[in-house]
Write a structure and sequence with these properties.
Chain A is of the alpha/beta class. Chain A is built from 13 helices and 14 strands. Chain B contains 7 helices and 18 strands. Classes of the chains: A alpha/beta, B alpha+beta. Chains A and B meet through helix 11, strand 13 and helix 13 of A and helix 2, strand 2 and helix 4 of B.
């Protein structure tokens, strides 16, 4: 199988798997007082410190969670409740292109906790528009928080996080950054001043599923989601020493090889984009990466390329449903994604592309290809070879599905 | 793969037969109903998970195809519009006609598949010349050939029904259990899948503005009022709430729903009996009756067919009854010069040997010759068998109610 869906989850390399299995042999509960517990605790604290190092923060600022979604929920809800503990600050500023973990969390706050959502616009490449943010912030007195992705999980566009956080910090508004797609792909250290909390996840970089972390700066406070034993700052629940150890190792590998991996992935992404342009000219490449491919000015192209995740290419093919393309490629042993959220396996039109100005019809046929550190040129060449036939069939199927001739 | 036991076993048999099988679950609604309740058997998240689990057991790829928009327009929209027009549609037939063996089949063919296989109980027989015929299933009690009567030659050519020769549903359940399918004992679905609580009247009332109107007898005398004509179907007895008893003291039934005038016509049971039904929307399942050697064309009347013996079935679980069918020109909607030279519309006309009850415009009449499904029509018109009122029904009437002769007291 050719696996080109690393943004969904990146396979665990053998050395990490061995480390994970070895760490599972730690017998104690990290909160236990006996020596077995202390050994597990030592491994966990060590992992916490190593992850803190990758972000340039202190260990006390890292709270392990049961995955990225919990981290995002704790970051957003925790900051919201904290900000509303003394005086009402109902407004949450949120770009339209957020991941569903954030979208559903803020929608829940709106429907259950009286939050007022202020939707922030993005441009056609998916960049948050800062003038709109500045206007929405106002004097900040009634704003609970700003939450934003660091890198868009669908199209890969990197957000102007430092600039946005500076604007928010100027009016005292805390910022939560969902860096799950970005962590281990690009360097996040040093965190911009003004960022209060940042969510990361292990399985996107080859670590185990169900392990994530919320980094909460010393200056910020989150009200917990889970109550139970007070094991960590802002979170209760038995701590997962083996998961944390493996997460830390994956994080260290990713950061040690950050530049070489990024260079490798950029090369593969470029090769893929070039192949698609040649063999499926009607395909539209989206986001900053797509714009970089189209840009004729070399300096500007390099600038745009640097503003995209190195390993993500996102495209639409007119008239073809994304799930048809996915199925046809799957039947050839190539795993890709539509990139958008699924309801019971049905891809919805991409809300990210809609926010970037595409029509609902155009936002339907999405394909997201994401490469990983072990992806080869043969892998992307196989996709380029399989794509034209898949596109031809998917376009015919798209037409048939919309306006069937039979049964009329 | 609906998530039910039939499609799971059908998929398993297709795999066993050596086909390259992909499981497809249709997302037909975006209703947020998440868990199954009662006897419902499709369209919930749980059903989707059941279907996926069966595909996993079989080791075949599984995908969910979203046809919710097509389903909304072609099946749900049609259902509402038909009721609003005073007719009684069958949404399952419409779904087979427009979705499963149309939109799904065409998409599948375009993607490189050869056929759509389903868990319907029906049997495809290939004759000596390679022509495909649709027949009743071996298990007459489960036979679903009626709801497949809309399939045309082209659709049949790409359809597979692996359960068609199974002697009984019990065999299918036993096979499912043997194969380790979790759905082996899942209840059959009975209700209309898109009406989650089974309350069709209530569901329709939310979609068709109910307008109060008169309930009249065959003389046109008002005998009561109703809260919206679209909530009545021909043959219905309950829910009329008539305060005044009938003069003869007998029970009264809905004979006709007149959508245009918002009237509901009631009368005695015998007035529900019909001797003829006809419809201009008809299709042949496989070879037409002439190529099948069943009848001959009528000379000088293109498209018309001489009468032939058959059986007709008007509901999914109705008994087939002996009848004589023919195709004739529906002269009164011809837009020509009055001599039959205009844009002729043909109709399938079925005369039943014995008076038939429970026939309503909008229903589908499926014509059988032996076990073979020959074709079908959507019923536009009926002619009453009530000998007291044996006048022909006017062409634009879509009712089972006899037309009264002038001056009758």
């Amino acid at each position: 199988m050719i696996y080109l869906d690393h943004a969904a989850t990146s396979p665990m390399p053998a050395d990490l798997r061995d480390a994970y299995v070895a760490a599972l042999e730690l017998v104690g509960n990290p909160s236990s007082i006996h020596s077995a517990g202390q050994r597990a605790r030592a491994a966990l604290d060590d992992a916490r410190a190593r992850i803190a190092t990758t972000l340039g923060v202190d260990a006390i600022e890292v709270t392990f969670t049961g995955g990225g979604t919990e981290a995002v929920n704790l970051g957003i809800k925790g900051l919201y409740w904290s900000r509303n503990s003394d005086t009402p600050r109902p407004r949450i500023l949120v770009p339209r292109t957020e991941h569903h973990a954030a979208l559903d969390a803020v929608e829940w706050l709106a429907s259950h906790e009286g939050a007022e959502l202020v939707w922030l616009e993005v441009d056609s490449l998916g960049f948050l528009m800062l003038d709109g943010l500045a206007a929405a912030l106002g004097d900040g007195s009634d704003v609970a928080l700003l939450t934003t992705l660091h890198a868009n999980n669908e199209v890969g566009t990197l957000q102007p996080v430092a600039e946005a956080a500076a604007l928010a910090a100027a009016v005292g508004v805390p910022v939560h950054v969902d860096a799950i797609a970005a962590y281990g792909q690009i360097r996040l250290d040093p965190l911009p001043p003004g960022v209060s909390a940042i969510s990361i996840s292990a399985h996107k970089i080859g670590g185990p599923v169900g392990v994530g972390a919320l980094v909460v700066r010393r200056t910020a406070e989150v009200v917990p989601l889970l109550h139970g034993g007070g094991q960590q700052r802002g979170r209760s629940g038995t701590m997962d020493a083996a998961g944390a150890v493996t997460f830390a190792l994956a994080a260290e590998h990713a950061h040690a090889e950050l530049t070489t991996r990024a260079t490798h992935k950029r090369m593969l992404r470029g090769r893929l984009a070039e192949g698609i342009r040649r063999h499926v000219p009607e395909a539209v490449l989206h986001g900053a990466a797509g714009a970089a491919v189209r840009e004729l000015d070399a300096d500007r192209a390099a600038e745009l390329d640097a503003l995209a995740l190195p390993g993500t290419l996102h495209l639409t093919v007119p008239g073809a449903e994304g799930d048809s393309l996915l199925m046809l490629l799957d039947s050839r042993g190539i795993a890709v994604s539509t990139g958008s959220a699924c309801q019971a396996g049905v891809p919805e039109p991409s809300h990210v592309l809609r926010a970037m100005g595409l029509s609902e019809a155009d936002a339907r046929g999405t394909l997201r290809v994401t490469v990983g550190p072990l992806t080869t040129t043969d892998d992307v060449d196989a996709l380029v070879a399989a794509l034209p036939d898949a596109v031809r069939r998917a376009q015919a199927a798209g037409l048939a599905g919309r306006t069937p001739r039979l049964g009329r | 793969m609906s998530g039910g036991v039939d499609s799971a076993v059908a998929a398993a048999r297709a795999v066993d037969a050596g086909h390259d099988v992909v499981g497809v679950h249709l997302a037909l609604s975006r209703m947020p109903g998440t868990l199954r309740t009662g006897s419902r058997g499709c369209c919930t998240i749980e059903d989707s998970l059941d279907a996926r689990r069966a595909a996993e057991k079989l080791g075949i790829p599984f995908y969910v195809w979203d046809f919710s928009e097509r389903f909304r327009d072609d099946v749900v929209g049609d259902f509402v519009a038909e009721y609003a027009a005073g007719r009684t549609p069958n949404p399952c037939m419409r779904c087979n006609e427009r979705i499963k063996f149309a939109a799904v089949l065409e998409k599948a063919l375009a993607l490189g598949f050869d056929a759509v296989a389903t868990g319907h109980y029906a049997h495809i027989v290939t004759d000596a010349h390679g022509n495909r015929e649709l027949h009743r299933a071996s298990d007459e009690a489960k036979d679903q050939s009626y709801v497949l009567g809309v399939l045309t030659t082209e659709q049949l050519a790409h359809s597979m029904f692996p359960l068609g020769t199974t002697p009984s549903k019990a065999v299918v359940r036993a096979e499912a259990a043997e194969r380790g399918f979790t759905v082996a004992q899942k209840p059959d679905s009975h209700d209309i899948c898109f009406i989650s609580d089974g309350d069709t009247r209530g569901w329709l009332a939310e979609r068709i503005d109910p307008v109060q109107g008169a309930i009249v007898d065959r003389d046109g005398t008002t005998v009561g009022t109703h809260e919206g004509s679209s909530s009545f179907t021909v043959g219905q007895r309950r829910g009329l709430n008539l305060g005044v008893p009938a003069p003869d003291g007998r029970k009264r039934f809905v004979l006709e729903v007149r959508a245009k005038t918002n009237e509901v016509v009631v009368g005695p049971r015998e007035a529900l009996a019909i001797r003829q039904l006809s419809g201009s929307r008809f299709t042949w399942a496989g070879q037409d009756p002439v190529d099948s050697g069943i009848t001959q064309p009528v000379d000088g009347e293109p498209g018309a067919l001489h009468p032939f013996d058959c059986h007709v079935q008007v509901r999914a679980h109705a008994d087939p009854v002996p009848a004589i069918a023919r195709v004739s020109t529906l002269a009164d909607v011809s837009s020509g010069d009055g001599n039959g030279n205009g844009n002729r519309t043909m109709q399938l006309v079925v005369d039943v040997i014995e008076p038939l009850f429970g026939v309503s415009p909008g229903q589908t009449a499926v014509v059988y010759v032996g076990t073979r499904v020959l074709g079908q029509c959507t019923i536009d018109r009926t002619v009453s068998a009530d000998t007291v009122n044996a006048a022909p029904v006017s062409a634009d009437s879509v009712s089972a109610a006899p037309v009264l002769t002038q001056g009758r007291s």
